[in-house]
């Protein structure tokens, strides 16, 4: 008998207009470093979910912001939010493993997404993203590591957990603006208290 494919918990939240799957506020580094990012530059958010970072940047004067996610439900919701707030956003359904880098960017953001594809796939994504970033441009990346095992809610999908410190190695030729490694205690509907090991980096191309 064919096994039923498990659907990640965030898909239900993406279908519900009344809740934000991961909160409506931007991630802290996007807020903290907004003033050093170029408002006229090209921005790409990969695995954007409800695009809270992309919306925050647009609402703060960034003119050229693109965001993509594998989830059709997420992108439908992003378009609805944009329409409601009368905001233009270039949001589209896209698998990061198959992204075609036709343009260069000045800021590439990805939070909580890369570990959902195999290690070699997200390494390639970072390699290509670095190649297609203008000098002086930034990357803001957050990934889960294998310092603690993947929690029940994501273990089926987290096929590419990073090694601790791997991001630092991948950006050794860039200027490291910020770097954090920590364990987050998390709890949400239907999932008891659990932990995620997190590495984050804000890096600037020389
Ligand atoms: C934990 S959510 C984080 C969403 C958003 N970055 C945030 O912080 O609110 C992970 C997101 O990665 C997306 N995702 C998973 N695999 C992907 C892939 N191969 N390409 C693009 N997005 C992917 C999921 O659809 C989901 O929206």
UniProtKB/TrEMBL annotation:
GO MF entry, a single one: methyltransferase activity
InterPro entries given in the database record: SAM-dependent_MTases_sf, TehB-like_dom
Name the UniProt record assigns to this protein: Methyltransferase domain-containing protein
Start and end residues of each Tellurite resistance methyltransferase TehB-like domain: 28-182
GO biological process: methylation
Keywords: Methyltransferase, Transferase
Domain of life: Bacteria
Keyword Transferase: yes
Keyword Cell cycle: no
SUPFAM superfamilies: S-adenosyl-L-methionine-dependent methyltransferases
């Amino acid at each position: 008998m064919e096994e039923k494919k498990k659907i990640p918990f965030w898909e239900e939240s993406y279908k519900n207009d009344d809740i934000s799957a991961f909160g409506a506020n931007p991630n802290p580094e996007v807020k903290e470093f907004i003033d050093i990012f170029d408002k006229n530059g090209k921005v790409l958010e990969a695995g954007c979910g409800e695009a809270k970072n992309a919306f925050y940047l647009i609402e703060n004067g960034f003119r050229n912001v693109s965001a993509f996610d594998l989830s059709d439900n997420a992108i439908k919701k992003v378009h609805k939010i944009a329409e409601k707030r009368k905001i233009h956003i270039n949001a589209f359904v896209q698998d990061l493993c198959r992204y075609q880098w036709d343009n260069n960017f000045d800021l590439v953001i990805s939070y909580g997404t890369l570990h959902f594809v195999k290690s070699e796939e997200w390494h390639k994504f970072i390699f290509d993203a670095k190649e297609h970033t203008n000098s002086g441009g930034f990357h803001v990346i957050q990934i889960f590591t294998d310092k603690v095992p993947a929690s029940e809610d994501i273990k089926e999908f987290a096929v590419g957990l990073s090694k601790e410190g791997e991001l630092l190695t991948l950006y050794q030729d860039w200027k490291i603006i910020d770097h954090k490694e920590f364990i987050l205690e998390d709890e949400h509907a239907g999932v008891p208290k659990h932990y995620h090991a997190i590495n984050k980096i804000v890096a600037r191309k020389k």
